[in-house]
Amino acid sequence: MSQIGKAIRLERIMSRETRKTIIVPMDHGVTLGPIPGLVDMQDMVNKVAEGGANAVLGHIGLPLYGHRRYGRDIGLILHLMGSSKLSPNPDNKVTVMTVEEALIIGADAVSVHINIGDENDSEMMKILGDVSRQCMKWGLPLVAMMYPRGKKVKSEHDVEAVKLVARIGAELGADIVKTNYTGDIDSFKEVVEGCPAPVVIAGGPKAETQEDVLQMVWEAIQAGSAGVSIGRNVFQAPDPTKMVRALHRIVHERWDVDEAKKELG
Questions:
Q1: Domain 2-264: which CATH number of 1.10.150.20, 3.30.200.20, 3.20.20.70, 3.30.565.10
Q2: In whole angstroms, what is the distance from residue 248 CA to residue 24 CA?
């Protein structure tokens, strides 16, 4: 029965027609504070919903203060882990919420953040396993943010490292794996082909241009990505609604970059 629940809820955060998704993370407030674009979360949720995002993602503060059903419906993914930039080790993510609590609040899915290569990655992997079991029990989809980060990691975009962390996420029960784009279509195809779960790309740091973001997304879709989970490059865009519309054209309608960027004008 739990698999039926997962299937129903997955349609709240992933298009039934395209089997792809546009997620806008807004969990930055715990790590970085009220950064530009997220000072007024309710306003930003409205803007990305209007643009056609499938879901927003954040901590409990998002449904408390920012997630209001508005215009076009939008899914809610509650983030269960966190750390602060003031922490001794910001890459060590700890549990701040449970699956059951997220279900009570009305989340359509939950997410965890796992840094493989960190000195505390064994504890984070245990959290991933525990959350996965609870998600299977309650029929709640799990998004696993899987990143290679630590002393042994030469580059967070290295294809071998990204392939490994993505596979770990799928092997431990994630329904959607979020990870870094590896820089080109061929290498990212290896990531997608080696991960049984759908893979979405992270947006990363603020890009120099919006066209750079669209190009990265287009390449990821050509490689077989199931979509995007992009935060700062959406909510810090000059017009977040237009940026999401451009992403929608590429992710769900398979437009090329030159056509999609006309939505930014």
A1: 3.20.20.70
A2: 12
